UniProtKB/TrEMBL annotation:
Domain spans labelled 2Fe-2S ferredoxin-type: 3-97
Gene3D superfamilies: 3.10.20.30, Nucleotide-binding domain of ferredoxin-NADP reductase (FNR) module (3.40.50.80), Translation factors (2.40.30.10)
Positions of the 4Fe-4S ferredoxin-type domain: 30-62
Pfam families: FAD_binding_6, Fer2, NAD_binding_1
InterPro entries, alphabetized: 2Fe-2S_ferredoxin-like_sf (IPR036010), 2Fe-2S_ferredoxin-type (IPR001041), 2Fe2S_fd_BS (IPR006058), 4Fe4S_Fe-S-bd (IPR017896), BenC-like_FAD_NAD-bd (IPR047683), Beta-grasp_dom_sf (IPR012675), Cbr1-like_FAD-bd_dom (IPR008333), FAD-bd_FR_type (IPR017927)
Catalytic activity, EC: 1.18.1.-
Designated name of the protein: Benzoate/toluate 1,2-dioxygenase reductase subunit
CDD domains: BenDO_FAD_NAD (cd06209), fer2 (cd00207)
Length: 342
C-alpha cells in the first residue's frame, strides 16, 4: 500500500511523493530526492517541523516535547521524521522548494479543444502525453507556455486531478498574449508545455459548510473542486455565488446544474453587474451574501476572482465583522490567471 503526500513549499511549489505503508514522510521524500529540512531524523531537534493540513497519520511517541509540544501537535504541526501516514496527506513545508533540492515539474501535451464560451472566455483542453504525470490539488494553477513566444500565462485547472485531459477557463483579453494565440493561431495538435502545479489556493477537507465566491473565469478552480467532491462524496452544505459583468459572461452553468444533481448539499446563485441584465440578482456578490450562507461564521470560505472583487469581499467581511472559520482566496490579474468581475 502506498499513500500520496502533497508537499506544499512556501514559494508556492507543490511536489507529490509516494509514501509506503509504515514509512515516514521524511524517508519517503529523501527516497524520491526531495531533501526536506532535517538535522537529527530522531524527533529531537524539530528542524523537520511542518503542518499537516489534511489526512491521517501516526506520530508515535518517540519524539521530544522540545521538538514538538502537545499544543503544536494539537494544531496539526508534525515532525516529518516521525510522521507515518495512514491516508493521503497534504503537508505544508515552511521553506522554499529550492532549499529542498526540488523544483516545479514540467509536462508536455497537445491542444485538444479550443472553444469560445462567451465573448470574454475560452475553454482550453490539453491532452497530456502518454506517461505524463500531472498531480495537483483541486484549486491549484499551472504555467502554460504560449507557443511562438518566450512567455507563459498561469491558469487554474477546471478539471479533476489525475485525468489525462486537463481543462482551463481562459479570459479572452483584447491583445492578450494567450488570448491572441487561442483566437488566431491555435490548432488541435499544437504542442504545449505546462509547468506546475503551484499555489496555496486549494480545497481542504470539508468539515463544515462551504461558501464559494467565484468571479468570471475565477469559476475554474471551483469546477475542479466540485469534480473532486463528486468523486469522493460530500453531504455538507456547499453554496456558490457566481458573479460576472454581463449575462452572456455566465458560462458552464450546465456543469453547475449537474453538480447540483450529484451533490445533495450543493446550490448556487448567479449575480450580474449590468443593470440591464435579465438575471434576477444584479450587482456584486457582496450584495447577495445573506446570513444563511455564513452559518454564523461556522463556514469555510473560498474566493477566486480579480483584485477588485477580492478587495471588495475583504472589505465587506471587515465592515460586517464576519470571521469565517477559514478563509482562502486567490487574486488573479490579467497577465497571471483568469479572472473577471464580481
Amino acid at each position: 500500500m502506498s499513500y500520496t503526500i502533497a508537499l506544499n513549499f512556501e514559494d508556492g511549489v507543490t511536489r507529490f511523493i509516494g509514501c509506503k505503508a509504515g514509512e515516514t514522510v521524511l524517508d519517503a521524500a529523501y527516497r524520491q530526492k526531495v531533501n526536506l529540512p532535517m538535522d537529527c531524523s530522531d524527533g529531537v531537534c524539530g528542524t523537520c517541523k511542518g503542518h499537516c493540513e489534511q489526512g491521517e497519520f501516526d506520530m508515535g511517541d518517540e519524539y521530544l516535547e522540545e521538538a514538538l509540544s502537545d499544543e503544536e501537535a494539537a494544531e496539526g504541526q508534525v515532525l516529518t521524521c516521525q510522521m507515518v501516514p495512514s491516508t493521503d496527506c497534504v503537508v505544508q513545508v515552511p521553506v522554499a522548494s529550492s532549499l529542498c533540492k526540488t523544483a516545479v515539474g514540467k509536462v508536455e501535451g497537445t491542444v485538444a479543444v479550443v472553444e469560445p464560451l462567451s465573448e470574454d472566455s475560452i475553454e482550453l483542453a490539453i491532452d497530456l502525453d502518454d506517461g505524463a504525470e500531472l498531480a495537483f490539488l483541486p484549486g491549484q494553477y499551472i504555467h502554460i507556455d504560449v507557443p511562438g513566444t518566450a512567455e507563459h500565462r498561469s491558469y487554474s485547472f477546471s478539471s479533476l486531478p489525475g485525468e489525462k485531459r486537463a481543462t482551463f477557463l481562459i479570459r479572452n483579453i483584447p491583445n492578450g498574449v494567450m488570448s491572441g494565440y487561442l483566437t488566431e493561431r491555435a490548432a488541435v495538435g499544437d504542442r504545449l508545455t505546462l509547468t506546475g502545479p503551484l499555489g496555496s489556493f486549494y480545497l481542504r477537507e470539508v468539515k463544515r459548510p462551504v461558501l464559494m465566491l467565484a468571479g468570471g473565469t475565477g469559476l475554474a478552480p471551483f469546477l475542479s473542486m466540485l469534480e473532486q467532491l463528486v468523486e469522493k462524496g460530500c453531504d455538507a452544505p456547499i453554496h456558490m455565488i457566481y458573479g460576472v459583468n454581463k449575462d452572456d459572461h455566465l458560462v458552464k452553468t450546465d456543469a453547475l446544474d449537474a453538480f447540483a444533481e450529484q451533490l445533495p448539499g450543493f446550490t448556487y446563485t448567479t449575480v450580474v453587474v449590468d443593470e440591464e441584465s435579465r438575471n434576477p440578482r444584479k450587482g456584486y456578490v457582496t450584495h447577495h451574501m445573506d446570513a444563511g450562507v455564513m452559518h454564523d461564521g461556522d463556514v469555510d470560505v473560498y474566493l477566486c476572482g480579480p483584485p477588485p472583487m477580492v478587495d471588495a469581499v475583504l472589505k465587506h467581511f471587515d465592515e460586517q465583522g464576519i470571521v469565517p472559520q477559514s478563509f482562502h482566496y486567490e487574486k488573479f490579474t490579467p497577465n497571471q490567471a483568469p479572472g473577471e468581475a464580481a
